[in-house]
Design brief:
Number of strands: 12
Bound molecules: pyridoxal-5'-phosphate
Shape: globular
Distance between the termini: 26 Å
Helix content: 40-55%
CATH topology of the largest domain: Aspartate Aminotransferase, domain 2
CATH class of the largest domain: Alpha Beta
Number of helices: 12
Radius of gyration: 21 Å
Length: 378
């Protein structure tokens, strides 16, 4: 099998897996217990917190552990929006982009039903955000701006600096979904100057079901859940110690090796994209992209059929976000770029990872032409 779907999830790094096994076997205590078993579990979590903080340029006391990127996004949006509105009832606006992950869009829609006003950025055909539309939208009534750092389907990277500055100037909080950026570009939350940033372990060779929300020092969110003191009362519930240990180890490996992995996957992606262009592929997305992602369309070749044919040939790719694949609805991201339904249904995303090789890339480029021909002539 060849796995080219690392934006959906990454296979766990063996060393992170080993740490989790160890933790499950040996760490028996509840991290909130005062006895030595509890202290051992607490120590494991705090080590993991330091490791994840190091990957993203945060202080460890600025990280709230969650059960993944989706929860981090929800905690950020609900927590920040209500915090702002309770301070000032006129702050009812949330500014975001239509290209956000369903986790952010879902949280925003729930807030919309609760009386917040949602204002979306304008987007150009390559997925670039029209900066002026955001500057115009972010005003004194804005509670929160939420814009991703990297797009899950296109790989587009978004320079946020000017927008963060403008948001802070008018008193709005700024959240970025950095789930697809971590490990793929150097992320430094302090340099970005955002107030909140979401991360997920399973996109950086850690386990599924673990994530983190960076919340700038001193920012106390309104919690989604009540009834426990864990994570400074902002995310109650007994921690998933082993998963967090795996997250920490994956982050530590990222600090040590991510720059090399980035160079490796970028070379693979460019090799693949160059080969695919010779087969007539069009690229969806902008020039400013993370190094591992390429979203392609071949005229007259249905994306879903291509993904299924590749799967039969032992190759895993995707038509878009994992949660929308399996359905015949075109990707909302591509529709937001102004593509027609028919056009959007052609898209296939290939996303590379550290264990992929140029032989795999060449093999897929070799099997693509007959598959494309077969689909076109069916
Ligand atoms: C940009 C982005 N945000 C959030 C998520 C959700 O993360 P998780 O799967 O950990 O809930 C994903 C996962 O695909 C993502 O790509």
């Amino acid at each position: 099998m060849i796995y080219f779907d690392h934006n959906a999830t990454t296979p766990m790094h063996p060393e992170a897996l080993e740490m989790m096994h160890c933790s499950l076997r040996e760490v028996v205590g509840n991290p909130s217990s005062v006895h030595r078993f509890g202290r051992q579990a607490r120590g494991a979590i705090e080590r993991a917190r330091t490791e994840v903080a190091a990957l993203i340029g945060a202080y460890s006391d600025e990280l709230l552990f969650t059960a993944g990127g989706t929860e981090s996004d929800h905690l950020a949006l609900h927590g920040a929006a209500w915090l702002q509105r309770h301070k000032d009832s006129h702050r009812r606006r949330i500014v975001l982009s239509p290209l956000e992950h369903p986790a952010v869009l879902g949280a925003a829609q729930a807030l919309g039903k609760a009386g917040f006003e949602l204002v979306f950025a304008k987007v150009s055909s390559d997925g670039t955000l029209v900066q002026q539309s955001l500057i115009d939208a972010i005003d004194e009534s804005t509670a929160l701006v939420s814009l991703q750092l990297a797009n899950h389907e296109l790989g587009n990277l978004y320079p946020l600096g000017l927008l963060v500055e403008h948001a802070h100037h008018v008193g709005a909080l700024f959240h970025t979904d950095a789930v697809q950026a971590a490990g793929k570009v150097a992320v430094d939350v302090h340099a970005l100057d955002v107030d909140l940033a979401s991360f997920s372990a399973h996109k950086i060779y850690g386990p599924k079901g673990a994530g983190a929300l960076y919340a700038r020092r001193g920012l106390l969110l309104e919690p989604l859940l009540a009834g426990g003191h864990q994570e400074r009362g902002q995310r109650p519930g007994t921690e998933n110690v082993a998963a967090l240990v795996g997250f920490g180890k994956a982050a530590k490996l990222g600090v040590a090796h991510a720059a090399d992995w980035r160079e490796h996957v970028t070379a693979l992606r460019d090799r693949f994209e160059g080969g695919a262009a010779k087969l007539g592929a069009r690229v969806n997305g902008s020039k400013l992209r993370v190094g591992n992602t390429c979203n392609l369309a071949f005229d007259g070749v249905d994306g879903e059929l291509l993904v299924e044919s590749l799967d039969l040939a032992g190759v895993a790719a995707s038509t878009g976000a994992a949660c929308t694949s399996g359905s015949r609805e075109p990707s909302p991201v591509l529709l937001a770029l102004g593509q027609s339904r028919r056009q959007a249904l052609l898209a296939v995303r290939f996303s590379f990872g550290r264990e992929n090789s140029s032989e795999e890339v060449d093999h897929v480029l070799h099997i693509l032409p007959p598959i494309i021909e077969r689909i076109r002539s069916a």
